[in-house]
Design goal:
Elements: H1 14-22, H2 33-43, H3 66-71, H4 73-101
Length: 102
């Protein structure tokens, strides 16, 4: 963000930044989509608006060897599906643990 010429203010935690945003001490805050949604819900913040387009996007991959995928395409697909289900079901718990450590 600094490279874009934007003024950047740092804080100790995501929660502090969201509180600064809620109290209009900062105009915007950039964070990952799912953690943002979960933390905003967990903190009961209602007067902030999430923009519809991401600031940036980054893909993460779980690579399989060609040999493994050729032998087990169904298993590879099930692993991806389970990762997505686990992420959705565990995100709030993981975010709370993360936030408590800050």
């Amino acid at each position: 963000m600094k490279k874009l010429g934007l003024q950047v203010e740092e804080a100790r935690s995501t929660e502090q930044n969201l509180q600064k945003l809620q109290s209009a001490r900062i105009a915007a805050y950039v964070m990952q989509d799912m953690p943002a949604d979960a933390l905003i819900d967990m903190l009961g913040i209602q007067d902030v608006r999430k923009l519809p387009l991401p600031f940036s996007a980054k893909d993460y991959f779980l690579p399989f060897s060609r040999n493994f995928y050729a032998k087990s395409p169904d298993l590879a697909a099930r692993l991806w599906e389970q990762i997505a289900k686990t992420r959705k079901s565990q995100i709030n718990t993981l975010l709370k643990k993360y936030n408590d450590t800050l």
